[in-house]
User: Fold Amino acid deaminase from Streptomyces tauricus.
Amino acid sequence: MAADSASASGRERLAALADEPVDHRFKGLPPDAEGLTVGELAAERRNLFSGGFTTPLLALSAERLEHNLRLMETYAERHGLVFAPHGKTSMAPQLFWRQIEHGAWGITLAVPHQVRVARAFGVQRVFLANELVDPAALAWVAAQLSADPAFRFVCYVDSVRGVELMDAALRGLSSRPVDVVVELAAGEGARTGVRTEAECGAVADAVAGVDTLRLVGVAGYEGEVPDADPERVRAWLRRLTALVVDFDKAGRFAGAELEEIVVSAGGSAWFDAVADVFAELPALSLPALKLLRSGAYVSHDDGHYREVTPFVRVPEEGALQPAFRLWAQVVSRPSDEQAFANAGKRDAAYDLDLPVVQVVRGEGGERPADGISVTSLSDQHAWIRTAEGTGLRVGDWLGMGLSHPCTSFDKWQLIPVVEQDGTVVDYVRTYF
Assistant:
């Protein structure tokens, strides 16, 4: 498949999302919309609160989503970083392309299925933040590389054994080698990656010994640094940049017909440290592709990432805005101190923090949710504690902020995008 054809096919598939019928698969959508397509429903510009939507219902703010996309585009440009946001956060091809249109180099992903989704929708540059040793997945990658000269694929290697398995699976399958970066672990007890610089060298030597792989740089994830604080994170990042400098001095990138050397890091909590340390990187024999991979920014949140985002530490750079709101309805009010709403673990992220009740919508309009809090979640219910005088009634809608975007998107297949006045202007399809 030629590059232009692959991209055009992906764009056509993206446009075709509007032709998907609205039906029982998509929770929260208006029952009377069944028989319409997603595009037709979007064109009706229904109001989220009066247009027949049912609870529970997750919505994305159109204005805040756009704000976050622009902010990170500007941040990456300001700091000389190339941006490949982590697509595992949303698994939404529409958002992948919004990110690319806002300057992203490509999309980072975690597992082969996610890469297949991105490719199905025409994404031309993929960074796989994992070592890939599955023969079937490697055969598919090789076929993609052979069919599309413009497709760029980079993945981790973190062991000599991994290199051997990749080589065995790829031999004879592709006219191009698979580009790999050696993953440096963030320390003892960290998740994946090579623990020492000497071992990194052994992995690089193993790559050099095969024709199926090409070493293009180094990478890692600073979010796994034990007892992370600014000093420890920067110390580890300097290990990463020193490793790429040592590899370059040793000629490990020579003769590989490279145009650039990749150095990559960056989750959503320490990208300020990544920007600072990558700015210190001395000149290499080739241009450095300083690749940042933060993903949670796209929706941000009202919990964990609100607390740890670098914009808290460097407010002069701007501020991300939480774009999610989960709406649920009060379905039981057994006492003055307790209520139950119809959203639970099937609907809301709960692995880091419980949802936070922010507003109440009732017969008198919308008001702050003072004295109302979520204490726990069942599969389909939120347990609500209410202080005296809240006036909460059965039938009221509760608007809740969520923590952890990665475990919010995955519970919803089709998410309304809503403007500030309540008008639903689009629907985001996810593929988990």
User: Anything to note?
Assistant: The mean pLDDT is 96. The CA atoms of residues 340 and 393 lie 10 Å apart. The chain has 13 helices and 18 strands. The radius of gyration is 23 Å.
